[in-house]
Amino acid sequence: MKAYNPEFRSRIKEHLKKQEFMHHMGFNLDVIDVGRTEGRMKLEKIHNQQTGLVHGGVIATVADIVAGFAAYTLVGPKEGVVTGELKISYLRAAKGDTLYARGWVIKQGKKINFCEAEVYVLNGGNETLVAKATTSMVII
Amino acid sequence: MKAYNPEFRSRIKEHLKKQEFMHHMGFNLDVIDVGRTEGRMKLEKIHNQQTGLVHGGVIATVADIVAGFAAYTLVGPKEGVVTGELKISYLRAAKGDTLYARGWVIKQGKKINFCEAEVYVLNGGNETLVAKATTSMVII
Amino acid sequence: MKAYNPEFRSRIKEHLKKQEFMHHMGFNLDVIDVGRTEGRMKLEKIHNQQTGLVHGGVIATVADIVAGFAAYTLVGPKEGVVTGELKISYLRAAKGDTLYARGWVIKQGKKINFCEAEVYVLNGGNETLVAKATTSMVII
Amino acid sequence: MKAYNPEFRSRIKEHLKKQEFMHHMGFNLDVIDVGRTEGRMKLEKIHNQQTGLVHGGVIATVADIVAGFAAYTLVGPKEGVVTGELKISYLRAAKGDTLYARGWVIKQGKKINFCEAEVYVLNGGNETLVAKATTSMVII
């Protein structure tokens, strides 16, 4: 795995400022490394669906963010990535204090960086895996 | 296709009041029929990612909502549905005035209602298909 | 949708001769049109899994073939396609005389042709949809 | 993770005898453990697509088999599993002597055992990951 832009961290931090929807949700990307990122957010009532659990759309969004920026850490200075497709499996009901997500590249390619992401709920001292995603991040 | 709860419309309308994240985004489900739903929202700056296009997470969320409630129209009074998994393909960049989504059941089952969803961007008079999703809605 | 190689039919027919696994299964691609293909095969005992139903792998294989060649009809003379990813939903148990599949491109792109496929079982006069697939065909 | 049928190994071995398509391909399941299985086959010309690489359908089939039987190791004596859906990402071109696959359950549930599978090609001393799959195995 190779980062073709040595300035990937500062470049991504600039981009994050303009990630409107991520800020609207309250998610923060706090680890940016070669081929992997992590982020978290405090869970609020606004993140729920009708039964009081975290909305599947929130979970898909953070999976997309951590996987997408993991792919982004590897591309060249004049390249970017867009999500080609994402599949997410909802393994357990999500309810807790904090949502934590991590994404990583499983295969770096010329056209596609294949990535995965896991989403966890933290509740007091407990950590529960609530969803797993696989995705094709297309290099543009 | 059979709706096992004749009161599905009023039941879903009650549920929608408590869909916190859907309201936080501004999405509204305006068609609820046997095995299919439709909804839309005005696109605002808060829905964007860093390049000014609609965030993939927003698109995945509305796909999940229209497919999930399409599945919900068919289940019995004591049943509900949860998203087992969702795959979404991002076909085109999304930029416009309004996001419109429609979801439908392609196979009603005892354990799973398999659904699909399409998400469109409306821009002036033009309508563009920006994403297509397939999903397994698990009956609980 | 545009076929960048006017000779796509003859080119695909040449390729099909060398599709070893397709012949090993007995599948035949009998419709090759701009952005879509169809094929069928007689179902034999060798196509089954342990309970006497058609094996999910057989169904995934024919979905991959019809979607892949649908994508192939559109690419230029010096291009090819490979399957980037495929998701298939198994809607019903498959048992019958004949397996029929059709694939089509839903979005032609520069890097990816997004495709779908449906697989049917024919049993006497009845036709049953047994699976639906979505796939990213990467242009190389 | 819990195997609800202590006799799962002998039961699966009985089933494997009747896996017609698996035998037609030449695949053999040689590890059957609680929540995980492994198998392999010698690669022959019949497994190829037109460019001399292993057919994507072969790879999807072995992924389905190892994931499906991994799910099967956990269900009760009167239960079985069927593949609800499978998504497979093709990471690298597959060419070599032997195809090796392993599948495992990532979340055991009451209705669905969520599984993953990896498919490798062995070529002389080298082992290459060529595909990764995620799947919902529905308990029946």
What attributes does this structure have?
homotetramer, 140 residues, alpha+beta, Thiol Ester Dehydrase, Chain A, 6 strands
Q: Would you give an account of this structure?
A:
Four copies of one chain form a homotetramer. Helices cover 24% and strands 42% of the residues of chain A. Chain A is of the alpha+beta class. The first copy, chain A, has one domain (8-139): Thiol Ester Dehydrase, Chain A (Roll), CATH 3.10.129. Chain A has a six-stranded antiparallel β-sheet. In chain A, a hairpin with a 4-residue loop joins β4 (98-107) and β5 (112-123). Chain A is globular, with a radius of gyration of 15 Å. The first copy, chain A, starts with 7 loop residues before the first helix and ends with a strand. Chain A binds chain B through residues 15-22, 24-25, 45-51, 55-58, 60-62, 64-65, 68, 80, 82-90, 93, and chain B through 15-22, 24-25, 45-51, 55-58, 60-62, 64-65, 68, 80, 82-90, 93. β3 (81-90) of chain C pairs antiparallel with β3 (81-90) of chain D.
Shape of chain A: globular
CATH topology of chain A: Thiol Ester Dehydrase, Chain A
Q: Specify the structural class of chain A.
A: alpha+beta
Oligomer kind: homotetramer
Low-confidence stretches of chain A: none
Q: What's the number of structural domains of chain A? A: 1
Distance between the termini of chain A: 18 Å
